[in-house]
Design brief:
- By secondary structure, this protein is mostly helical.
- It has a domain of about 70 residues: P-loop containing nucleotide triphosphate hydrolases (Rossmann fold), CATH 3.40.50.
- Helices cover about 40% and strands about 5% of the residues.
- A two-stranded parallel ribbon has the order 1-2.
- Helix 2 links the parallel strand 1 and strand 2.
- The chain is flat, with a radius of gyration of 17 Å.
- The two termini are about 35 Å apart.
- This is Ras-related protein RABA1i.
- It holds the Pfam family Ras.
- InterPro entries: P-loop_NTPase, Rab_GTPases_membrane_traffic, Small_GTPase.
Length: about 110
């Protein structure tokens, strides 16, 4: 595991960045190189979220996106409150659809013309 990455990330980004260590291909248990407990412990020491996923088994994929979006929402809401924005302007119980919708609008709105 690359342990200096978390420090470098935190040194060069906003202090409220949401970082998450994601173990991919959790379905390939027989090829596991790092134990779950080791990864979880590393994430905890780095003050980072941790989750294992498997697209093949549909394990924690939606939970991953839900958790990241929830954490981002909390940071943005906290920032809005810290700068004195009106509480009424902070959206409450807003639904974010992370289903299998059309993503063409998202791709068009990106930073490049791909």
């Amino acid at each position: 595991m690359y342990q200096d990455g978390s420090k470098e990330l935190r040194d060069h980004t906003d202090q409220n960045i949401i970082a998450m260590l994601v173990g991919n291909k959790a379905d390939l248990r027989h090829l596991r190189a790092v134990r779950t407990s080791e990864s979880s412990g590393f994430a905890e020491r780095q003050n980072t979220l941790f989750m294992e996923t498997s697209v093949l088994e549909a394990l924690n994929v939606q939970n991953f996106f839900r958790e990241v979006l929830t954490q981002i929402y909390r940071v943005v809401s906290r920032k809005a409150l810290d700068i004195g924005d009106d509480l009424a302007s902070v959206p409450r119980r807003q639904t974010i659809n992370i289903g299998k919708g059309d993503v063409s609008a998202v791709k068009k709105g990106g930073c490049c013309s791909c």
